[in-house]
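Researcher: Re-running this chain for the archive, since the previous output was lost when a drive failed. Same request as before.
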Amino acid sequence: MELNEKLKQTLIKKATGYKVEESVCEYGMQEDELRLVKKKVSTKYYPPDLSAINMLLSEKQTDYKNLTNEQLEQEKQNILKLLKEIDCGNS
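Model: Regenerated structure tokens:
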């Protein structure tokens, strides 16, 4: 899958909302061995994001070939910010 398609799929996921399973494991020593003592699995829901929705809607109306370098740089910064938010949410 090429980068543009991955970015679009990620943007769609952010725009529609998604769930992530998170697990926290606690280990302890038992019989001279490190063993799993407790495991907690929880599901976290990330609601739809309005900025991602707006970006998807404006993508259909924007002709990126006609943007200035400054406008393209701003779009780049917006996408990088969105990817950082998504990455932080998955960590």
